[in-house]
Amino acid sequence: MVRLLTLAGLAILAFGLGGCSQSPSAKESASAVLLSAKPGGAVGVVQARKEAKDKQPIVIMGRIGGDPKPFVDGLAAFSIVDMEIEPCSKEEGCPTPWDYCCDLDKLPERKALIKVVDNQGQPIVSDARQLLGVKELSTVTVQGTATRDAAGNLTVLASGVFVDALER
Asked: Could you write out the DSSP letters of every residue in the chain?
């Protein structure tokens, strides 16, 4: 009797799961957002922060960093820094060069958040490092939609990401 109930429970569970839509795999998500060619018309973070309007299409280029931990846990999201400032060296007292600790006063105007989204505009629930094959200080060119908060911070909802081949 217990075995019959267990089998019936498994059948109901399997039937119920079969009808649910499943989120795309990381491989499907990566193939949907990774660009094989660098998009044209990219601007740096400084220019984007000055000119990008809320809900406007944008192509932006930068280096992953700006924080000791630039990746957002559990999401394909990370911060980038304008290419005009160089990462700090260990000789300058920065154990994590990608946090730009020697230029902290310059970071607010030179940093943006990138959130990789699916084709419905929802954040992809996957680690950006595995999804895109990136790491701290990787150079990326991102196409997407600019969003601005009340403080003027720039976030890009990325529909496509090109990773510089030298950084992979």
From this structure: -HHHHHHHHHHHHHHHHHTS--PPPHHHHHHHHB-SSPPSS-EEHHHHHHHPPTT-EEEEEEEE-SSSS-BPTTSSEEEEE-TTSPPPPGGGT-SSGGG-GGGGGGGGGGEEEEEEB-TTSPBP-S-HHHHH---TT-EEEEEEEEEE-TT--EEEEEEEEEE-GGG-
Q: What pTM does this model have?
A: 0.82
Confidence label for 7 from pLDDT (cuts 50, 70 and 90): very low
